Amino acid sequence: MGASNPYTKSEALKIEELDLAPPGRGEILVRIKAAGLCHSDLSVINGDRPRPLPMALGHEAAGIVEQLGDDVHDLAVGDHVVLVFVPSCGHCNPCAEGRPALCEPGAAANGAGSLLSGARRITRNGQTIHHHLGCSAFATHAVVSRRSAIKIDRDLPFEHAALFGCAVLTGVGAVVNTAQVRAGTSVAVIGLGGVGLASVLGAAAAGARQVIAVDLSADKLTLARALGATHTFDAGASEVVAAIRDATLGGVDTAIEMAGSTRAFDLAYRITRRGGMTVTAGLPPPDATWAMPAVNVVAEERTIKGSYVGTCVPMRDIPRYVDLFRGGRLPVDRLLTGTLALDDINRGFDLLHEGKAVRQVVLL
After folding, report:
1. Which is it for strands 60-68 and 80-83: parallel, antiparallel or unpaired?
2. Superfamily of domain 7-165+331-363
């Protein structure tokens, strides 16, 4: 962690041959076909989200099942799957409440760098290598928990399928699950990476009458317009808050922060109308804090809400979002700005760090 950029020079990620043990009970072996580059990977590289090292990165992916561990009976060899970066045990309190994104054993396993079972299946000359969010998908193969995989149709292109495991699940889910955006309301999205632009897609699909896109990048604002944004604003403009509040007659019903910064979250809060909801799904560094104007929460009946993995139920949501994609109502393929080989992955993270890419996918 903390390697200097450009990463093509510091080689923050190294391509090596590792030993992969076969899947254990409740696990599967997946031949990875496509894996997306996400800020959650970058935040490990730059140290914003510390993880145990050494670690095999990658968490947004799709592939083909090659081997089943014991007690896996609802998948078959040859099935195509999307990987989900929070495995759900199905038994803890959040899972029992229908909130698998908050699975307690899943969160503990992700923090420890293990699979849901607590096992680690990757080694290098006898040294244990940690798993990234139960996936470690920047690789030709991955052993994952059965509860980290969602079966998909075989005709869905892998480079598109991979995006459903993080960008779409998180971005669209924040709109329809966390915020429960209704047709005719107004929505602002601050931070137009892959997840933020997926929120723009979700807001448009949900029937929002105003979809406000906010970012520092003119290119991303242009893309947001093409994806359904009705208004775009430069986040660095001196009067951006006043301009957005003026365009929305007092503020938006829902503001969604996707930049992972407290400045962006503060902007989102300030453009939310009285009685509105401010959602944050970005992941700032663990020590980041925000000074909340507490009186407004009461006097303006504000709602501040966190969204993790789009408050998703992956078994339910991924098939729904895929159907919307197939029907032309959720053009997820427009998020894909490039594909690359595994050997070029450091260059890909340079582009992501520089804000020059939305979603790049490694094809394997």
Report:
1. antiparallel
2. Medium-chain alcohol dehydrogenases, catalytic domain (3.90.180.10)
Token look-up 């890909």 returns 348
- For the domain covering 171-307, report its CATH number: 3.40.50.720
Collect all residues with Cβ–Cβ distance below 8 Å to 149 and sequence separation of at least 6.
28, 30, 65, 75, 81, 82, 83, 84
Beta strands in the chain (DSSP E): 19-20, 27-37, 55-56, 60-68, 80-83, 122-124, 127-131, 141-145, 149-152, 186-190, 210-215, 231-234, 252-257, 272-280, 303-306, 336-340, 359-363
Tens-binned pLDDT, residue by residue, of the chain (364 aa)? 989 999 999 999 999 999 999 999 999 999 999 999 999 999 999 998 899 999 999 999 999 999 999 999 999 999 999 999 999 999 999 999 999 999 999 999 999 999 999 999 999 999 999 999 999 999 999 999 999 999 999 999 999 999 999 999 999 999 999 999 999 999 999 999 999 999 999 999 999 999 999 999 999 999 999 999 999 999 999 999 999 999 999 999 999 999 999 999 999 999 999 999 999 999 888 888 988 888 989 999 999 999 999 999 999 999 999 999 999 999 999 999 999 999 999 999 999 999 999 999 999 9
pTM for the model stands at 0.96
How far, in Å, CA of 181 to CA of 168, rounded? 16
| Structural tokens at position 46 | 């730059």
81/56 Cα distance (integer angstroms)? 20
Retrieve residue 289's tokens: 């804090």
Q: How many Å separate Cα 201 from the centre of its chain?
A: 14
